[in-house]
Design brief:
This protein is 38% helix and 11% strand. The protein has 279 residues and is α/β, with parallel strands linked by helices. It folds into 2 domains: 192 residues, Aldolase class I (TIM Barrel), CATH 3.20.20.70; 69 residues, Alpha-Beta Complex (Type Iii Antifreeze Protein Isoform Hplc 12). It has a 5-stranded parallel sheet. Strands 6-7 form a two-stranded antiparallel ribbon. The longest helix has 18 residues. It starts with a helix and ends with a helix.
C-alpha cells in the first residue's frame, strides 16, 4: 500500500496550481485528505468539500477532524458495513455537520459490473437519510448512468488525459471523449427521469384526440334500443368515454341519431344520466 500510494498520490505542490486552474474554468476543485496535516493544508487552500476514501471510513479521528471544518463530507463505503457507515455519519453529526454524501463503492480495480450492487443507493437514502452517490471503478459508463436513475446525486469516475501513459488507475479511467459521453448521457438520464406528474401537458392533451370514444355506427330512431350493433368504441376521442359502454347498452335513445354522431349520456333515459353524474 505504501508503494501504491507513493505512486498514486497527488503531490501537495500541485494543489495550488490545480485549484487556481479549476477556479479559472469555473469548476469546483477539492481533494481527499488521509491525515490531519493534509486537512490543515487543504484548509489553507479553502478546500470546499472533503472526500473520505473507502479505506479511511474507519478512521474516526480523521472523519471527526474533517467534519469539524463544517464543509460537505463525501464518504465512500467500499469496505464498510452498516455499523461502519452509521458510525461515520454519527461522527460527522456530532461535530454539527450533517452535509453528508454516501457513495456506493466497490473496492476493486477495475470493478466487475455484476458487483456494482446499485440497489444500495436507494437503501442508503432510506436507511441513513443522507444524499447518495456512486464511486465507480467499472469499465465504461453504464453503471454511472444507471446509478443516476436510482437517485445518485454525486458520481465519482476516474479521469485520464491519455491511457497510454499508464498508471495505477489507467485501466478503469475515462479519457476526455469517454468522460464527455458519460456527462452527456447522465444529463440525458436526469432529463428522462423527470418528475411525478399526472397532469397532461398540451401535447398529451392533443394526443387524447386519437383515443377511442363512443359513436353511433347505425342510425337510430327515437325509442330504439342501444345495442352492440349501433354503438361502437372508435376513434377519435370526441364522443362519450368508453367506460359508459355497458351502462348504455339496452337503454332507449330519446332522439333520432345518425351514423357518425358522437354519443352522449343525454341521449338515453334521465335515470341513467342522474346515476352517471352521481358516480
Amino acid at each position: 500500500m505504501y508503494d501504491l500510494y507513493k505512486e498514486a498520490y497527488t503531490p501537495w505542490e500541485w494543489h495550488g496550481e490545480l485549484f487556481k486552474a479549476a477556479q479559472a474554468e469555473d469548476l469546483v476543485c477539492f481533494s481527499s485528505p488521509f491525515d490531519k496535516t493534509a486537512v490543515d493544508f487543504l484548509e489553507s487552500l479553502n478546500n470546499p468539500i472533503y472526500k473520505i476514501a473507502s479505506l479511511e471510513i474507519t478512521d474516526i479521528p480523521l472523519i471527526r477532524y474533517v467534519a469539524s471544518k463544517k464543509k460537505p463530507v463525501i464518504i465512500s463505503t467500499g469496505i464498510a458495513n452498516d455499523d461502519d457507515i452509521q458510525l461515520a455519519i454519527d461522527t460527522c453529526k456530532a461535530e454539527g455537520n450533517d452535509e453528508i454524501v454516501l457513495l456506493k463503492c466497490t473496492t476493486s480495480y477495475p470493478a466487475p459490473i455484476d458487483k456494482a450492487n446499485l440497489a444500495m443507493i436507494g437503501d442508503f437514502k432510506r436507511k441513513f437519510s443522507v444524499m447518495t452517490g456512486l464511486s465507480d471503478h467499472t469499465l465504461g459508463i453504464t453503471v454511472p448512468i444507471v446509478a443516476v436513475t436510482l437517485g445518485a446525486k454525486v458520481v465519482e469516475k476516474h479521469f485520464i488525459l491519455d491511457k497510454s501513459v499508464g498508471g495505477p488507475d489507467a485501466s478503469f479511467s475515462l479519457d476526455q471523449n469517454e468522460f464527455a459521453r458519460m456527462v452527456s448521457a447522465i444529463r440525458d438520464a436526469e432529463v428522462a427521469i423527470g418528475k411525478i406528474d399526472y397532469q397532461l401537458d398540451d401535447a398529451q392533451k392533443k394526443s387524447r384526440e386519437f383515443s377511442r370514444s363512443l359513436y353511433v355506427v347505425e342510425s337510430m330512431k327515437r325509442g330504439d334500443i342501444v345495442t352492440f350493433s349501433n354503438i361502437r368504441s372508435i376513434r377519435p376521442g370526441y364522443g362519450l368515454h368508453p367506460k359508459h359502454y355497458n351502462e348504455i347498452l339496452g337503454k332507449k335513445v330519446n332522439k333520432d341519431l345518425s351514423r357518425g354522431d358522437r354519443f352522449s349520456l343525454e341521449f338515453v333515459s334521465k335515470d341513467l344520466i342522474s346515476k352517471s353524474k352521481r358516480s
